[in-house]
Amino acid sequence: GENVEQHPSTLSVQEGDSAVIKCTYSDSASNYFPWYKQELGKRPQLIIDIRSNVGEKKDQRIAVTLNKTAKHFSLHITETQPEDSAVYFCAASRGNQGGKLIFGQGTELSVKP
Amino acid sequence: DAGITQSPRYKITETGRQVTLMCHQTWSHSYMFWYRQDLGHGLRLIYYSAAADITDKGEVPDGYVVSRSKTENFPLTLESATRSQTSVYFCASMAGGLREQFFGPGTRLTVL
C-alpha cells in the first residue's frame, strides 16, 4: 500500500523567513496530494492541494510543487508569520480509492517573532 | 464547520468496555472517514465509507467496527476497548472524488 514520509518532523524559523516541508510517496498511481494545517487543539484544515497533472500551485504565500518522477512533493511558505505556527500534514491519494488519504507523520512549524 | 460534529468530545472508559463515538454531518456528503491521531504517527485511517451501507477498512481497522445506515451518520465502535486505543479520533466527510475532507472537532478518548 501507499506510504508517505514527511520531513522534517520539527522546523523552527524566524518571522519573515521561508519554510519548506518535504514529502515522498511510494505509490506511483497516487494522483492527489493535499496539505493540511492543524493548530494546537484544533481540527486539521486543508490549506492547498495539487493533482498529478500539475507541477506547481500557488496561493498567496503558500506554494506546493510536485515531482512525479521522483515521487516527492513539497510545501513552501514564504514570509512566515507567527500565525503560521502549527503542525502541517501532507497526504497522498489515488482517485480510485474513494478519497482514502494516507498522511505523513506531520511537521511542527514554529515561527519565532 | 458546524456541518460536521462529533460526540462525545471527551470520553474516559475502562479496558474491555464497549465505546461508540458518533459522527454527524449535515452536508449530505457521500464519503465519510474515521482517523486516529497519535503523537509521532500523524493521522491514520481506521475506516471509510463511500455511501450508506458501503464501508471499507483503512490502515488500522483492528478492534474497531463501523456502520453507516444513514448518509449523515457514521458511528465508530470499539467493541472491547484497550489502552492502545487511547487517542484522539477525528471524523471527516467529503463530497466526492478527490476533494477537500472536512474534519470534525475530534473526540479525545482515554482507556484506563
User: What is the string of SSEs of chain B from the N terminus onward?
Assistant: EEEEEEEEEEE
The major β-sheet of chain A equals: 6 strands, mixed
H-E order of chain A: EEEEEEEEEEE
Largest interface: A-B, 24 and 27 residues
Low-pLDDT residue spans of chain A: none
Termini Cα gap of chain A: 41 Å
**Spatial shape of chain A:** globular
Give the rounded overall mean pLDDT of chain A.
Answer: 94
The count of strands of chain B amounts to 11
Distance between the termini of chain B: 31 Å
Helical content of chain A stands at under 10%
Beta-strand proportion of chain A = over 45%
Instruction: Tell me the number of helical segments of chain A per DSSP (H or I, 4 or more residues long).
Output: 0
Percent strand of chain B equals over 45%
Summarize the model shown.
By secondary structure, chain A is mainly β. Chain A contains no helices and 11 strands.
Written account of the structure:
The complex is a heterodimer of chains A (113) and B (112). Chain A is an all-beta fold and 113 residues long. Chain A is 0% helix and 54% strand. Chain A contains no helices and 11 strands. With 112 residues, chain B is an all-beta fold. In chain B, strands 2, 4, 5, 6, 9, 10 and 11 form a 7-stranded mixed sheet that branches. The termini of chain B are far apart. The mean pLDDT of chain B is 94. At the A-B interface, strand 5 and strand 10 of A face strand 4 and strand 5 of B.
